[in-house]
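COMPLEX REQUEST
Ligand: zinc ion
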Amino acid sequence: MRRLPIFFVLDVSESMIGEPLRRMEQGIEQIVSTLRQDPHSLETVFISLIAFAGKAKAITPLIDLVSFYPPKMPVGGGTALGEALDVLMEQIETKVEKTTYEKRGDWEPVVFLITDGKPTDNPSKAVQRWRTEFASRASMVAITLGTNADMQVLGQLTENVLALENSTEEDFRKFIEWVSASVRAQSQKVEVEGKTGGVSLEKAESSGMTVVDNVDTFAVTDPDFVVLTGKCSKNKKPYLLKYARSKTDGISFIKTQHFGLEGAFALDEGYFEWSSETTTQESVNTSALDGVPPCPQCGNPTSFAICECQRLLCLDSTGLATCPWCSKSLQFDMSGGGGNFDVNRGQG
Ligand SMILES: [Zn+2]
Ligand SMILES: [Zn+2]
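STATUS: Structure written out below.
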């Protein structure tokens, strides 16, 4: 039997924490359960999941629909697109059967690359290798969630670039349905026509996406989120504070520079395994951030104290703590006269 390999290359960087990641997890489950109901797909479709943040890994190597079990998505700091492409190419090389004189191999793989931000590594070598060695024998659709991805890089990888600009639950649901329908169409195509023809973008626009014909003219925006990484001073585990850009009132062409608290998320050590070692120098002033949540790990009243090492930690009411990052003993003034300061942003 010739398999139809479908690769999902999924961005699990910090900015995806919370709602977007939950939707992605549910979306993958939805795609698999939809395809299981289709006899063509059930016979031919094999799925692989590659996740990438600061690091990239195949979290589900190529597997049939019946055996597929939805994995829990990791989260990390960074957007290592180059590394993700390397993992993808390695998976295609080792898991997809090539056609030889003796044997007909698998069908041409289809790749859905889903990202929400700009690469934090240098992907140019991997992009070049994709173009010369893989682009002719795999088809790729690149989808950006929001409008701050690097369109130039995506445009070098594939002609099929889509943007899901709106972020409502309903838009995401339509997007997932479109992906399922596209995979189903491919599996019927191989059965009827004996070949894959690449994914058709015909119905993408009616499914709420923008087909990006010209990557040069697509309006790329600044991120709408600020994500900060802290460590609990009690259990030393990491947490993320996610702030979303405040919506302007009325009609305005100027985006506000204020960010309101969207959530505080407790993480486990796996976060560091998925993060790149290098930290970005980009910082944000605390005056732009509204809202200080309690520590999502231990419940300490503030999750927003900063050490001399420039990192965040949580604090109880005594103001005494040992920095979980650099082990320095700290004494904070809890009288409220702290003022504003710069804090390093996450890598998105
Ligand atoms: Zn804590
Ligand atoms: Zn420190």
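REMARKS: Helices lie at 19-36, 39-44, 81-95, 124-134, 151-157, 169-193, 270-273. The chain has seven helices and 17 strands.
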